[in-house]
Amino acid sequence: MAKVLKKVDVVTAGVGFAGGIVAAECAKAGLSVVGLERGEKRGLADFQEIHDEWRYAVNYGLMQDLSKETVTFRNDRSMKALPMRRLGSFLLGDGLGGSGVHWNGMEFRFFPYDFEIKTMTEKRYGNKLSKDYLIRDWGLTYDELEPYYDRFEKITAVSGSDSNPMEGKRANPYPLPPLADTPILQKFGSAAKSLKCHPYILPAAIASEPYVNPDGERLNPCQYCGYCERFGCEYNSKASPVNTVIPTALKTGRYELRCNCNVVEVLKKGGKATGLRYIDTLTMEEYIQPAEIVVLSSFVMNNAKLLMVSGIGEQYNPATGRGTLGKNYCYQITPATTGFFDKEMNVFAGAGALGIGIDDYNADYFDHSNLDFIHGALISLLQTGKRPIESNAVPAGTPGWGAKFKEASLYNFNRSLSVSAQGASMPHKENYLSLDDTYKDAYGLPLLRMTYNFTDQDRALFRFITSKTEAIVRAMGAKSVSSKPDSRNYNIVPYQTTHNTGGTIMGAEPGGSVVNTYAQHWDMDNLFVIGAGNFPHNSGRNPTGTVGALSYRCAEGIIKYGSKGGSLV
Amino acid sequence: MPEKTDLSRRGFLKGTGAAAGFIIAGGGILAAGAAGAAADAAHDSNGEKTCGPFRGRMFFTDSLEFQTISEAAERIFPKDKNGPGAIELAVPYFIDNQLAAGFGYNAREYTMGPYYKGAPTQGYQGAMVRRDVFRRGIAALNREANTRYKSDFPDLTDSQKDDVLRVFEAGKADFDGVSSAWFFGLLKSAVLAGVYADPIYSGNNDMQGWIMKRYPGAQMSYKAIIKDAEFQEIEPMSLADMQ
Ligand SMILES: Cc1cc2nc3c(=O)[nH]c(=O)nc-3n(C[C@H](O)[C@H](O)[C@H](O)COP(=O)(O)OP(=O)(O)OC[C@H]3O[C@@H](n4cnc5c(N)ncnc54)[C@H](O)[C@@H]3O)c2cc1C
Ligand code: SF4
Question: Which of A72, A203, A356, B71 is the most buried (most CB within 10 A)?
């Protein structure tokens, strides 16, 4: 029998940026909050010997333990979905702070175009995509979200330059000046300019200078140590939930954090959520945490799964088009070109979000009239710090092993650079999330099933963007270039990006979406479901700036609901 | 394999007793690099005993298996004018030790059934964990070597070894459970990991993998050089230096 605990105002399932922001804001506003996190407690003290590529980058030391839970995957409905047995394509977060601990820290806003994509695309091009693509306006404009972006940027010490002309209007400059402008970044900058593009240093949630955020949390200047993405920062330079919003929440004395607690069900009664049922992952004992307000902040996958296993909302069915839960699952495409140069460069130094990019081929900043796709991609060069186990690029035609491979991989390690892109992803009626009918997790729940494939839109965008990444790498003076081939079918094995979105999308009206623009569930007004799952499509930029902004807006909604009740819209 | 070679190899290993851990006998050749370096590391310049990397086998019990994986690793990453190959870098110990640990048991991966073949886009779907795949793969390497050349893999010439490995790489030596190409990919990535992982994992002997690649290892900060246009040669550092 589950042990029933004392009721609190707010309980969150998962403590990453989304859960941390909600906790900090609600606790500051006087609400009692409990955070349930399935993974380990962790913080700065755990990151002192983190420069270990084998443990953290190759074997995913900070990420989800798939022996407990994974997802199943198939490319289309005719296939049998099978478990993702090892992490690969995307790297799910686990443990206090979630993926926010081991992210790169590229912190972007989405474009004004994203929020009104259907209206704006139709206005300019008519019905460009077939009706199989489920693009929709978000129910919220860029201008409405701007103050929340601003807030999240200040909390996470974003270092950036205001020189990008292809962006929504900012009310304030970035909190900190950009990270170092390095010779490697300058190579891209000159090449992009020679091609009449508009390069800018990428905004990074990494402090370029000492910084104290509005909540009083301190971040230190980045050391460019080169063990950043996939690692925790041992200097508290990269903003993460564990050095920003979580300590802010704890300081109030109204936040209780419980790690090793895996949520398995949203409990409900009479059209309201009553709390969360969870399992202590160490003792396997079961508990019930009652709460006035329940928040799901367990990332795209488990936010959708917890609603599904709890029977809240109607599962999307691609055959009939009925239902909203699980629909509009999107990803991204990731074209890239590697160039091989003569001179050795300090490629081993860098930071997860130290980079330079262009948006000349992103959103609707270029004319798509004669192109067979919409939207675009951020094209960038990231100087993350190259590490030796996983960086063994060799020019095309080199054998994959043996003496020639050894020679070429050693020679080119410090002489190769990659320009990569993250291309927007449009929702398609056949790409969705649902529950698996065969495989179970360690707690007896069905695994989440992902049905996903690239579409014609993705393939066309991939080809177009590859021609641009190639042109830039050539203009950078590469001796030879090699581009990532266009893969017809989505493959869950090679790493691409952890920019999964959709499944619990937001909207202006209940019919086509799961939550409103405060992430409040349409069918249950004391249940909030927050994260990138709320995105109706995915943009050609990193998602977390938008996750953070939506989380601040969600917290505002929860506080308002806490005093007034009812629907927020 | 002729009885004589077999006996002499076993006898040799037995004769060296506890030191067997430091010796990588491949086709009868003693790899002095790793063995010597390991011995050196146990004493500082004043001859004082320090804590050195005492390497040993934790997984492979049969020496033929260990020699087979050693020789295959060496062909994938051979000694050349740039520096040591997999054997001198102690890569076989890295692989052995990892197979004995969580990596060998796929400890943090989903291993529950049922098992279906699946499409390539769905990734590995076998029931075997890595330690099983390696042992099967090694047996298959020796089977292929004996079919083609009537010798065990470690006793082949370099070009014969390469021929056998190419058969595996092409997926043409299927054994039960996984394709040989998949095993080859796993082996190659394990070899590269053994060359370049921090030496605390028993490979990358003396940081020689990093030195060859001109990679500085686990440094604390590059703030001082991040804007430098000239390539910086920095003496590498291991996590062990921080203990
Ligand atoms: C290597 C890497 C690099 C990235 N780089 C960038 C970048 O540069 N820029 C960018 O914008 N984004 C980046 N991302 C994505 C970014 O990390 C995520 O968008 C962001 O962290 C999501 O925050 P979240 O709070 O929604 O989810 P998460 O951080 O995933 O947090 C969810 C938490 O919920 C917990 N949880 C899940 N299920 C349960 C359950 N049943 N019970 C209890 N707890 C549960 C998880 O353990 C986790 O801690 C990167 C991701 C990765 C993996
Ligand atoms: S590169 Fe900078 S932000 Fe990233 S882990 Fe190192 S010090 Fe921290």
Answer: A203
Whether domain A3-564 has CATH 3.40.50.10190: the reply is no
Cross-chain Cβ contact B221/A493 below 8 Å? no
> Between the CA of residue A322 and those of A133, A164, A181, A319, A446, what are the distances in Å?
15, 41, 51, 8, 22
Question: Cα–Cα distance between B206 and B197 in angstroms, integer?
Answer: 11
The residues spanned by each domain of chain B are 38-241
Helix %, strand %, coil % of chain A (to 5): 25, 20, 55
Mutate to test the pocket of ligand 2, among A47, A156, A233, A346 (most ligand atoms within 8 A of CB): A233
Q: What is the pLDDT along chain A (569 residues), one digit of tens a residue?
A: 899 999 999 999 999 999 999 999 999 999 999 999 999 999 999 999 999 999 999 999 999 999 999 999 999 999 999 999 999 999 999 999 999 999 999 999 999 999 999 999 999 999 899 999 999 999 999 999 999 999 999 999 999 999 999 999 999 999 999 999 999 999 999 999 999 999 999 999 999 999 999 999 999 999 999 999 999 999 999 999 999 999 999 999 999 999 999 999 999 999 999 999 999 999 999 999 999 999 999 999 999 999 999 999 999 999 999 999 999 999 999 999 999 999 999 999 999 999 999 999 999 999 999 999 999 999 999 999 999 999 999 999 999 999 999 999 999 999 999 999 999 999 999 999 999 999 999 999 999 999 999 999 999 999 999 999 999 999 999 999 999 998 899 999 999 999 999 999 999 999 999 999 999 999 999 999 999 999 999 999 999 999 999 999 999 999 999 999 999 99
Which residues, in sequence order, are CB contacts of A247 under 8 Å at separation 6+?
A217
Q: Can you give the pTM of this predicted structure?
A: 0.94
- A236–B contact, CB cutoff 8 A: no
Q: Tell me if A403 and B78 make a contact (CB, 8 A cut-off).
A: yes
Contacts of A389 in chain B (CB under 8 A): 192-193, 196-197
Q: Evaluate whether ipTM surpasses 0.85.
A: yes
Which of A88, A344, A410 has its CB closest to that of B212? A410
End-to-end Cα spacing for chain A: 39
Q: Give the number of C-alpha atoms closer than 13 A to the C-alpha of residue A439, restricted to the C-beta side.
A: 29
Give the number of the ligand closest to the Cα of residue A51: 2
